[in-house]
Task: inverse folding
């Protein structure tokens, strides 16, 4: 097996600028200090996943499909909504953004053109911040209360999407 034949996970992301990443870091700094035991995402990994395509060996067909899906899509603004937490195998803490029709249209179009991506869930942009083992109920409610008191104020224009293979950006798609 050659290195070229190894397929890596392909993802389409909204890349956050260093300025936005620093705003996030500044706005969660006090909370982050309270929980050094959490598995915090690296700041350079603060991005918004639009779609995960899994492992494709044919980059060209994915790029062609995205060119078709994105050719007439407009740039848009994202506005933070809240810091939230979900609980499954562990707790995940993330920034949730307000609903944005243009990114929902992009998501729907990609699903329509990619038969393997059939998923009826409405797309919700998020930035994952941290995860941690499931805490005791008491700890959970304390964390939940502290998260509800966090005020995240972010807004930024999205005028391009990046296609990644693993951690390497392989293509940028500009929006109108």
Result:
């Amino acid at each position: 097996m050659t290195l070229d034949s190894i397929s890596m996970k392909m993802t389409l992301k909204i890349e956050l600028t260093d300025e936005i990443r620093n705003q996030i870091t500044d706005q969660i700094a006090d909370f982050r200090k309270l929980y050094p035991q959490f598995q915090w995402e690296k700041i350079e990994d603060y991005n918004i996943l639009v779609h995960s395509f899994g492992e494709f060996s044919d980059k060209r067909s994915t790029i062609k499909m995205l060119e078709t899906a994105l050719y007439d899509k407009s740039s848009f603004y994202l506005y933070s909504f809240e810091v939230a937490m979900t609980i499954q195998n562990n707790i995940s803490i993330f920034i949730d953004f307000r609903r944005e029709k243009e990114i929902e249209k992009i998501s729907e179009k990609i699903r329509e053109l990619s038969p393997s991506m059939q998923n009826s869930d409405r797309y919700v942009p998020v930035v994952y911040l941290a995860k941690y083992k499931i805490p005791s109920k008491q700890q959970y409610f304390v964390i939940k209360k502290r998260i509800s008191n966090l005020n995240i104020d972010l807004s930024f224009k999205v005028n391009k999407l990046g296609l990644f293979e693993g951690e390497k950006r392989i293509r940028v798609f500009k929006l109108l």
Notes: The domain at 3-174 is CATH 3.90.1140.10 (Cyclic Phosphodiesterase; Chain: A,). The chain is about 30% helix and 35% strand.
